[in-house]
Amino acid sequence: MILGGISLEEREISQAVIGRLPRYFRYLGELRDEGVERVSSQELSELMKVTASQIRQDFNNFGGFGQQGYGYNVEYLYNEIGRILGIDRQHKFIIIGAGNLGRALGNYMNFERRGFIFCGMFDQDPELIGRDVRGVHVRPMEELESFIEKNNIDIAVLTIPKAGAVSVAKRLAKTHIRAIWNFAHVDLNVPEWIQVENVHLSDSLMKLSYNIKRYAEEQERS
Amino acid sequence: MILGGISLEEREISQAVIGRLPRYFRYLGELRDEGVERVSSQELSELMKVTASQIRQDFNNFGGFGQQGYGYNVEYLYNEIGRILGIDRQHKFIIIGAGNLGRALGNYMNFERRGFIFCGMFDQDPELIGRDVRGVHVRPMEELESFIEKNNIDIAVLTIPKAGAVSVAKRLAKTHIRAIWNFAHVDLNVPEWIQVENVHLSDSLMKLSYNIKRYAEEQERS
């Protein structure tokens, strides 16, 4: 892929930059929905509360997105970032674990808007098997591998406890799954062809707790 | 607070270091549960798949935790990191938004183990008000401020759509709440005394999508 004359192949984009792209995408989507056609890095900077130089630096990783005259073309930039993020194509996902969190994610319509299609749900609990989450039946764990292969599933969402997650990840590693979105409170060991993105909710809550404490300590000192 | 002779007050600890502390805490908790008494930075490094020098550097921010002879005392290190994270004290939280995600978080017992106490739940939907989530009744939004003040709530968890989140954050900013754990897909503008930790699930999913694409492109090239 060639962007602004610089091929992506030539560059190693850091995960920190990648981590910021969805946020740009979100703000640009809002601007687009508001009918805004062009935006300067300065305006984007004020909106997003990051420096304009950070924005230009980030965008330069992708050839700069052709800023000219007065700023960037919002629609073009939105689409380009979407393409870089790979959400110009569809992804099919299953959810393993039909508990509260699994059902919450299954019911979350916004993922569909981004091309993430909810295809299947699995659990080992006989009480949950056969239930319906937004038109998708909960299936027994025995059918996991065959379902993935038959339906070309790209992503497995893990919303099961820690102990189960490790053994399920081993089973997934033998399928053609391409990624695991892991909500289990454990780091997974999977082959390099399976991408893993962790959402460790307890970790996030502890970070919040640290920042509460730090702010209180700063106040005591001043 | 004095740790290993270096007072925390003298140091500005970066959010990147803080972001890694919960993971150390998790691994040390597992070692402790397995009855391991001491661990070297080398062993921790192999377990956690980070370099031993990264570990030592991170720990040096807090005075090094007195590694001596053969490694660190697991129990001591676990407790110290817990204290730094502020989870040696209790935090009382409410959940605003009694939909699937809110209920999932309310039902998640692990938070309680870390001293995060689920005290109240709010929603504007008459259908949901009065329902029960793990013994906690869903209350109408009108009672939000009075409940927070009366019960000394520390943390508000926002599991409502984007539009509602912005106005609720404004209401929270007028209470004595100390932190917002934000699951709404929007960045919040709140006064500096309110700590915010965002869990933007769509952003995380897009990062996964990017890594799937990048891996596929690398394979095509090689």
Q: Keyphrases for this structure?
A:
seven-stranded mixed beta sheet, homodimer, 11 strands, alpha/beta, disordered N terminus, Arc Repressor Mutant, subunit A, two-stranded antiparallel sheet, Rossmann fold, 2 domains, globular, 222 residues
Topology (SSEs and partners):
The structure is a homodimer of 222-residue chains.
Chain A lengths: L1 E2 L2 E2 L7 H19 L4 E2 L1 H8 L3 H9 L11 E2 H11 L6 E6 L3 H7 L3 H4 L2 E8 L8 E2 L2 E5 L3 H8 L3 E4 L3 H11 L6 E4 L12 E4 L2 H21 L1
Parallel strand pairs in A: 5-6, 5-9, 6-8, 9-10, 10-11
Antiparallel strand pairs in A: 1-2, 3-4, 7-8
Helix pairs in contact in A: 1-4, 2-3
Description:
Two copies of one chain form a homodimer. Chain A is of the alpha/beta class and 222 residues long. Chain A has two domains: 2-84, Winged helix-like DNA-binding domain superfamily/Winged helix DNA-binding domain (Arc Repressor Mutant, subunit A); 91-203, Rossmann fold (3-Layer(aba) Sandwich), CATH 3.40.50. Chain A is 44% helix and 18% strand. Chain A has nine helices and eleven strands. Chain A has helices spanning 15-33, 41-48, 52-60, 74-84, 100-106, 110-113, 144-151, 162-172, 201-221; strands at residues 2-3, 6-7, 38-39, 72-73, 91-96, 116-123, 132-133, 136-140, 155-158, 179-182, 195-198. A seven-stranded mixed β-sheet of chain A has the order 7-8-6-5-9-10-11, with helices on both faces. Chain A has a two-stranded antiparallel ribbon with strand order 1-2. In chain A, helix 1 packs antiparallel against helix 4 and helix 2 packs across helix 3. The radius of gyration of chain A is 21 Å and the shape is globular. Chain A starts with a strand and ends with a helix. The relative contact order of chain A is 0.08. Residues 1-10 of chain A have low confidence and may be disordered. At the A-B interface, helix 1, helix 5 and helix 9 of A face helix 1, helix 5 and helix 9 of B.
